[in-house]
């Protein structure tokens, strides 16, 4: 029963990840054509501003609450008290966040033209607090979250098609996006009574604050690292450049999220082997995962680079065609981002080296901000994309270097060579397809199919262990 529960939770987590991608994938091609560049830029800049205040409200509560709350699952009275203390801290932090946001909107001239959009988006801060998602994680109830998310995203898509028809409907779109991303908060708050009885604690114990603030310090750096490009770009230029960059960044983040899902699946098993000190299994699993990441991430990077222009024009429309240059730059960051995720979350955090991850993230955030202020005034969205490459490389190099001090996990040489040759084949296929096919959709489809087949053939001929492993699994599945 426990094994079935674990498998079910894994499936539900995958579904949550898929659902988080569904709304932007379905809606963004429509929204970009309806709202156009400037309105999209205004929305993206407002989202980046809200992310900092959301961070203040959230602190490091979810990570800490899940880690500590599992200890009280068998004692309802202690669980009620613990959950109430954590929720109260979260609520007080939310109030502080809203006060700071109000002051910023009152006194920062740059934000005054964004007041309405930021005001609507600020509902996400309160809804995130009410969602008490950490309670659901403690009790491993992923089914309810997945169900509510699906319903709200389905409703949001219908609302968008009914009410968003021009750039004048920006505020309607912002409201709908809040419903899609955070509307589940209200339902989750009331449903949480199934597990705990929450009450306000006027003076929560200080023992919770220190570990929460340690997690918070890392989260600050990560949020700055993710959002500073858009914020600084909007501050130093205008909505048009933010809209162009935001389009490239959305495509990049979708691909990055899918690739990181490969790593996320393996983290629990990797941490288990580390806990049981099974070094041979750690090395075996680590080497296999790196081989898979190389075989998947490298062609994804090369393919996205080669097809960036038709992807942008089909995904967002011809008015966003300039976004292909920052997308090409961001595609280079893909491999570094995924490997940084592996070395940080799989290795360093599993070995309780959180301080190294915090240092790498903070350093990268500082470098990112400094370079953005230097380069954006001259190179706009291309500079924002370039600084992302630098930041991802920085995190990756530091994490990899520190990880190798603990355990040396290497890629198989034959797999690396065959992947590089296969990627050359992808470039050739995409270049030839671009010369003979004018229709953008056909160009993307033909390039992906043909280059994918060429890549697979190269890996098979050069006996890449990843492709042979996949084929063996497929044959066993067909026979079984």
In short:
With 480 residues, the protein is an all-alpha fold. The chain is 84% helix and 0% strand.
Rg over CA atoms = 23 Å
Shape: globular
Percent in helix: over 70%
Number of strands: 0
What do the pLDDT scores average to? 84
Ranges with pLDDT <50 over ≥5 residues?
1-7
Continuous helix count = 18
Biggest pleated-sheet summary: none
How far the N terminus sits from the C terminus, by CA atoms, comes to 23 Å
Strand content: under 5%
Structural class: mainly alpha
Give me the strand/helix succession.
Answer: HHHHHHHHHHHHHHHHHH
Would you mind describing this structure in some detail?
The chain has 480 residues and is mostly helical. Helices cover 84% and strands 0% of the residues. It contains 18 helices and no strands. The protein has helices spanning 2-58, 61-69, 76-107, 115-121, 123-130, 133-138, 142-163, 170-182, 184-191, 209-236, 239-275, 279-306, 308-315, 324-348, 354-406, 413-436, 440-461, 465-479. Helix 11 packs across helix 15. The chain starts with a helix and ends with a helix. The relative contact order is 0.10. The model is unreliable at 1-7 (pLDDT under 50).
